[in-house]
Amino acid sequence: MRIIIFSLLCSVLLIISCSPVNTAVSKTPIIEEVRTSIPKQTSTPKNIILLIGDGMGLGQISAGTFANGNTSALENFKTIGLHKPYASDKLITDSAAAATAFACGIKTYNGAIAVDENKNAVPTILEEAESYGKATGLIATSSIVHATPACFIAHNEYRKNYEEIATDFLKTEIDFFIGGGLKHFYRRDSDDRNLIKELQDKGYVISDYFQDDLEDLSPQSDQNFGYLTADEEPIPTAQGRDYLPTAASMSYPFLKEHSDKGFFLMIEGSQIDWGGHANNTNYIITEFLEFDKVIQSAFDFAKADGNTLVIVTADHETGGFAIQKESKMDSIVGAFTSDYHTGTMIPVFAYGPGEELFQGIYENIEIYSKMRQAFSWTGSFSNSDQ
Ligand code: MG
Ligand code: ZN
What we know:
Bound molecules: magnesium ion, zinc ion
CATH class: Alpha Beta
CATH architecture: 3-Layer(aba) Sandwich
């Protein structure tokens, strides 16, 4: 009898839930609710610091947090969202398509550097920031011509055309950059150009790991500054690379003083991804912990400054990394499902004026449109506007 009543009840519920009248009735309040829940921006930042942990999914963040005494700088952030990282041609994105989404607001094919599916250049947020008179900066723990930083400054059909990407540094007015890849600027296979000399002729102060320690330099904000940290790719931080926190802390006051119109800065923790590709838990954790110092310094700068929006996210997850049951808080045992990227949604953390925009679940290209919205930029922008 009970079973009969139960199944009767289920049938009634099923009928109610399937009835078109009911659907129509229930739809209206849901739409209203969505409309009224769209966050309103409270104020406009002068500066944006976009922090990209390459390959930094929730597993990587969790492992790094536990390995760090159960805390991280991300716990300062109260506004959290998720983005969907897929590319236009593949559900699993690479870093080039993903950074093009952040920099240009378009889904494109894997390997594309700030070009669309037809290989046409699409203007980047860094180029647009320059057109508004803002100071701009790029910092990475890969080479500076590697996919993630490249997508903010260069346009190329293929991410591995490093020498062509390097020449694009002459086409912008980027004010501050630090990363590896010196050889692509001055010891080139495709031509005899010395891009270091060309940048110096343009008024840049340029140095490199061979000539100076970064800590010994104090770049003056009335000149543009570049520093190359390695001939090709920098070594892992576990093997002694330590410039990222110095570079970040140097960049905030430099860019702030460089223009009274504010700045756009992208800093990448490039090698969290490489730890994932290598299926190496310790590599992931050590790279995350270094990047975490930069998250903290960016947060501290933004808190003191009051006009700076900090966004922390990743381009995609790498390795299908998961924390295994043998793990303890201070000894994480990781396992991997892949030596490539995975398709899982990616956390976004935001702090500062405009942070409300980053709540919810959205496409990766909306990181771009939300940054523009935060800056109160309206209308379209093309490279020819410069
Ligand atoms: Mg990268
Ligand atoms: Zn990768």
